[in-house]
Amino acid sequence: LVPMWLAGQQMAQQGATRDMPVEVLIALVWGALVGLFKAERLGYIRLDDDLLARSGVACWAAFRPDSTPG
Q: What is the pLDDT at residue 47?
């Protein structure tokens, strides 16, 4: 998780993320990632490259500073 933390710190310093601790952002992204793979393993969804890419876009939209929550 150290590479994620370092990247998050750099993005936060550049103003590229919401104003919240990097550790919180990492926990939210990690939870989303684990949730996707768990849902696939349990047979609820089928992951492919396209769905993973769209999921990444959705996660980024939740954390970028110019998106509106809700």
A: 95
Lookup: tokens for 27: 């926990």
pLDDT, one tens digit per residue, over 52-62 is 999 988 888 88
- Residue 58: other Cβ atoms inside 10 A: 10
Distance (Å, whole) CA 26 – CA 43 = 26
Cα 66 to Cα 16, 41, 42, 46, 57: the distances in Å are: 9, 34, 35, 31, 14
Residue type, 49: D
- Rounded Cα distance, 68 and 29, in Å: 18
36 touches 42 (CB < 8 A): no
